[in-house]
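Narrative summary of target 7.
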Amino acid sequence: MTALREYQRLEATGLWRPTADDQRREVFVSIGDATLTITDINNTALTHWSLAAVDRLNPGESPAIFAPDGDPGETLELSDGEAEMIAAIEKLRHAVERARPRPGRLRLFSGITITLAIVLATVFVLPDALVSHTVSVVPDIKRQEIGEDLLGRIERVTGAACDTGDTRAAVNRLEARTGVRKIVVMQTGLEDSRHLPGNIVVLNKALIEDYEDPAVVAGYVLRERVQMMTIDPLRHLLEQSGPIAAFRLLTTGTIDQGTLDAYAAQVLTTAQPEVPDDLMLAAFGAVSLPSTPYAYARDVTGETVLPLIEADPMAGRTPDPVLADRDWVLLQNICGG
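Modeled conformation, tokenized:
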């Protein structure tokens, strides 16, 4: 349980005054989503203080007196009987203070700056929530842009992707047959297949050149598609890169090149996790492709991929070809043969 969640239902009573010239009045105090909410006895909100801008005027003394940073005239007084609330405010104040990227105090006046404070607190207190929120609001066009940027970083290691005018139509048909947006073939630097944000699948040319049946390469593309459906590629990138990358993407719409370089290296060097057989079989069945050719490409003995062979959804049926013979021949020469 994070600090914010721990105290979200905590309430207390205190004495509040909006200015130094006003009389103190009894109020209710509660902790919200990175804010301190002060309400009157009718449950009408009087003010909201950002936890990032709360200052204690009398550390170690009693009763505890708090004020918005930079405005000591507005105060909130909590008695010793509200020790739990006092401790909660102190804990969250210190958590936000440690999270500040530079020294100094910040008074949040506008809704924009309050939102920024909430996001900053989320970066350090609720990184999972920050990543989830960022992933949920990034549009497809931005995902594609990030994927293309990553592809460019990968090509610095592997060399330029294979591409010829003659093979573009065949690649497009393979994309349509397997349900992915973009397929890219590399000469070297890649073990077999990988995927990137923006529904991009990257293949080693050996998956095309070393097999006679296009169902093999289609199987590897489907594996990446299942991976993308199981774990959002953008979420994986942000989880591996840390909350600062998510915060930067959320606030600026960009991911810095150093982060992309590090993740591109990880894509090329980290082994793919195994995809459960039932998910692979469902994927093959959904696009009417046989799973047996892919299974034997994974293990020529068939021992470790037996479920993919025995439960082939196309067993006893004649599925439509993955590609026409002419397209397959052209595709096998995409990297110059």
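Residues 190 and 269 are 8 Å apart (CA to CA).
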